[in-house]
Amino acid sequence: MNRPILQRITRINRIFLVAITLIGCVAVAQQADTTLTPAQQRAQAAKEARQERAQQAAANRAAAVQARTAAAQNKATPQSRTAANSSSPSTAKTPLTNTANAAGTARPGTATGSATTPSTAQRTTGASTVGSGTLAWGTRVYSSSGCVHNGNSAMCTFTFTNQGNEATLVAGSEMSGIQLVDDAHVPHHANAAHFLDKYGTQQPRLLVQAGDTGTYVLTFPDVNSQVTSGDFHLRQQIVGGVTFSSTNSGTTGTATKSSPSESGTAPK
After folding, report:
1. How far apart are CA 142 and CA 155, in angstroms?
2. DSSP 104-169
3. CA–CA separation, 84 vs 1, rounded Å?
């Protein structure tokens, strides 16, 4: 065998031996990395135990929160049912119906508002029951007396009862924003307003005491003469079944107290 071949074989053997040596070193290093000392094993076990305890504590807290929430819901449900049963529609409407009857039949100087205690819905503007037949504005409760055609306008009359303390009422400010929706579904905004004192005289202002009753007239423009009925909309309150006539009956009325001033402006 010639010498070059022997030299080549010798180099191959050396490379093979070096490769084997490197592989063995790597294996030893990996084994050393994966082998933990007893102290390291104890530290690893303690760490895993702490993680398990933390997870268990979090699960316990979540379960406690869920249990408290369920208990609160179960406690609130009977109370909600009791409140709903105690405020049936007929009971909620009773004070308003009594007030409307008192306002329609009261004589000048008669304190009718004290006969019925105003409900929270009556004392708060825009919080009356829809379709109750009356409209609450501040401490006043208004009941519709119908409307009459006057050319292309409609004059609608309301009787009211003051269920609060002494107040000066201003025509145009009372029931601001009220709409008349006629039977053709056309909305109309009032453009004129006035009170009527007990002599039937138009007044822009009235000074009323607790229990005083009076009459308030609103004029709605551009109402077709063929309209026979409509609804009043005041914020969330609705009074339906308002009737129309072609005479001027219903545009006069009484008020227990009055204080004349400048002309009233239309509610907006």
Report:
1. 15
2. HHPPTT---GGGSPPPHHHHSTT-SPTTSSEEEETTEEEEEEEEEEETTEEEEEEEEEE-SS-EEE
3. 112
- Token pair in block for residue 175: 């029931």
User: Is pLDDT above 90 for 72?
Assistant: no
- CA-to-CA dists, residue 71 to 57, 64, 230, angstroms: 21, 11, 49
Nearest to 93 by CA among 138, 143, 162: 143
Cα dist from 194 to 29, 136, 190, whole Å? 102, 18, 11
Q: Which amino acid is at 40?
A: Q
Q: Which residues of 53-91 are buried (b: 16+ CB within 10 A; e: fewer)?
A: eeeeeeeeeeeeeeeeeeeeeeeeeeeeeeeeeeeeeee
- The mean per-residue pLDDT over the stretch 93-97 comes to 36
The pLDDT tens digits of the residues spanning 122-163 come to 333 333 333 448 999 999 999 999 999 999 999 999 999 999
CATH node for 91-245:
2.60.40
Domain ranges of the chain: 3-83, 91-245
Structure tokens at 268: 């907006």
Query: Is this prediction's pTM over 0.90?
Result: no
32 CB-contact burial (10 Å; exposed 0-12 / middle 13-18 / buried 19+):
exposed
